[in-house]
Design goal:
The protein folds into two domains: 37 residues; 95 residues, Orthogonal Bundle (Cytochrome Bc1 Complex, Chain D, domain 2). It has seven helices and two strands. Strands 1-2 form a two-stranded antiparallel ribbon. The protein is globular and about 45 Å long.
Amino acid sequence: MFRSGVRVDDSMQAVTAHPTFADPRNIAVLATYLAALEANPTPVTGPGDHLRAAQELYDHICTACHGPNGRGEEANRVPRIAGQHYPYLRKQIESAAGFHRDLAPPEMTSALRGLRSEEKDALADYISRLGDSKAP
């Protein structure tokens, strides 16, 4: 994903490389601020194919931790995933499936690893629509 000729991931790497992020308290302050923001009312979604099947996958793989609405659980450090942008979710699903996510539990990574690419696409699309009345 590009914005103004700069890869979004690269720009975030530049931000997090700033000396301010060497102090864990500053990271906590930023995380608290971001967590308090309202959810994006119009996230980027996928093509809308196979949402019913994706709902079944979500119920099977994600609901136990992230909840049926995808809001997570702050007390247990489970992030809100509902309404995130489809491309971001797709990348995170792939990353977790590849064991690149340090905090992802093994049950999640093994379940995601077993999904076909089309299923990962549909799952990311479904999660991006959580909280939207159009989601099945």
